[in-house]
Amino acid sequence: MSKKNPKALTVERTPDQTSEQAAAEVAVNPAMNAAFVVDTYQSNILGDDVDTDALVATLRASMDKSAAGDLSGLEAMLIGQATALQTIFVSLAKRAHHQQYQRHLEAFLGLALKAQAQSRATIQAVIDLKFPRQATFVKQANIAHGPQQVNNGQSIGGDNVRALENQTEQIEVLEGLAHGGKEVDTRATAEAARGNPAVEALAASHRPKSAAGKAASARNAYKGGHTVKLRRLIVKLNGLLREQRQSLDDGGIMVSIYTTSVR
Q: By Cβ atoms counted within 10 A, which residue in 35, 103, 176, 209 is the most buried?
């Protein structure tokens, strides 16, 4: 009788399945996928004699226990990983201490701290697995960056009732408008009041009516000030420069004279 190949995988096929369907089911089976990865990376630990069928059966049993609520296997695995990562951290930290060059020291110490961080994260995963965090349902969250007043559970009476009725009436009006109703103004006519005399309208202005008064008022208008006067002087200067250039050109002298301008 020939010895069974430990790497041979037994694939079970139901009568209504084709070979292609059975192979596709193996390709997506979680236990078989995990068995392939474990078998690839454990060869330098246990050798090549690990039976693939036995490995798949062990993984399926562990998955069934987890599905039934028994997480002891996962807890043991996480504790083992945390311990192994702690061992890696100690080993790399010791090697970093013996380095003579700064670059090598930083390389080993960086890897050591990464292993330490992974070990801490694994320990936190064990704690969350053993003691799950309780979900908190908050009925009301009041968040403000300044003074805040929150009234919970107060009885409604007096002015509060009238304010609530007014609010309800406004909501009904808005709902009526949304469904094609007519606009209703529920507000009372506001009375005129001298709220702020400093910003009240000025008294009626008295404009000049005679020709002399209008002429005097026109002279008070803003006419541009010094800018207008400067522009007029520049126009005159440019005219003089053009005349001088023309006279020099007529005498056979080539002279370039630049005109100026103001904005």
A: 35
Residue 202 CA neighbour count, 13 Å, CB half? 3
Cα 44 to Cα 50, 157, 205, distances in angstroms: 11, 81, 103
pLDDT tens profile 220-263? 765 666 777 788 888 888 888 888 888 877 766 555 545 555 55
Burial class (CB in 10 A: 0-12, 13-18, 19+), 84: middle
Pick the closest to residue 258 from 165, 245, 115 (CA basis).
Answer: 245
Q: What is d(CA 77, CA 34) in angstroms, rounded to the nearest whole number?
A: 15
Angle between helices 72-97 and 52-67 (to 10 degrees): 110
Q: Helix (H, G, I), strand (E, B), or coil: what is residue 14?
A: coil
Do residues 57 and 98 touch, judged by C-beta distance below 8 A?
no
